[in-house]
Amino acid sequence: MFGVVFPERSFPMDASAFAQIDPLHWILDMNSLVGDAYRDVRELCVFLLPAAASSFPPGKALAVYFQPPGHPFLFCGAVHPARPSALLSLPWPDPSEEPPIPDPNPNPLQLALTSAKIGVSVEDLASLPPVADAGAEKKAERLALRVGENLFNFMQSFCGIDGSRLVVPMDILDRWFKKFQERARKDPSYLKDFAL
């Protein structure tokens, strides 16, 4: 019915890589894919297989969720015949937001909470929240903070102090932006570092 790819982390996988809970629900334990390094997996490409796209029930969608350890499943996007594939963000929480690590002799329920999961389910398209807005917002926020931090660090190297004020040269923004552009031209991965 569907396939997934974790860009730069996996080959394409079909639904058989997931544990099927019932006819409409599937779960993938991220430990089977990347062990404890689930936070390094930032994106998921999900797609309907051609045979499924033509026979998909009208008004239905394939909803995708992610579940950080100890958290509930969170919606990250959906596909349906009019949108047969999508690249979805997986905005895992910061480690500081993680629940405490369970004791060394956990019961089976605690073990279930220690691994990240991807969930897929067939649902009514009209009942789903807007697609991927939360992930896009979080990514834009991270990018803005990283660029702002870069500018601040650059400005600090040229400032003077006048009482409780920082004094910077008038052309500081132009100098910073030229340096930023030059670095991005020389190193294509430079801008990718800001988006992570």
TrEMBL record:
<dbReference type="InterPro" id="IPR008493">
    <property type="entry name" value="Hikeshi-like_N"/>
</dbReference>
<feature type="domain" description="Hikeshi-like C-terminal">
    <location>
        <begin position="141"/>
        <end position="192"/>
    </location>
</feature>
<protein>
    <recommendedName>
        <fullName>Hikeshi-like domain-containing protein</fullName>
    </recommendedName>
</protein>
<dbReference type="GO" id="GO:0006606">
    <property type="term" value="P:protein import into nucleus"/>
</dbReference>
<comment type="similarity">
    <text>Belongs to the OPI10 family.</text>
</comment>
<feature type="domain" description="Hikeshi-like N-terminal">
    <location>
        <begin position="19"/>
        <end position="128"/>
    </location>
</feature>
<dbReference type="GO" id="GO:0061608">
    <property type="term" value="F:nuclear import signal receptor activity"/>
</dbReference>
<dbReference type="Pfam" id="PF21057">
    <property type="entry name" value="Hikeshi-like_C"/>
</dbReference>
<dbReference type="Pfam" id="PF05603">
    <property type="entry name" value="Hikeshi-like_N"/>
</dbReference>
<dbReference type="InterPro" id="IPR031318">
    <property type="entry name" value="OPI10"/>
</dbReference>
<dbReference type="GO" id="GO:0005634">
    <property type="term" value="C:nucleus"/>
</dbReference>
<dbReference type="InterPro" id="IPR048364">
    <property type="entry name" value="Hikeshi-like_C"/>
</dbReference>
<dbReference type="GO" id="GO:0005829">
    <property type="term" value="C:cytosol"/>
</dbReference>
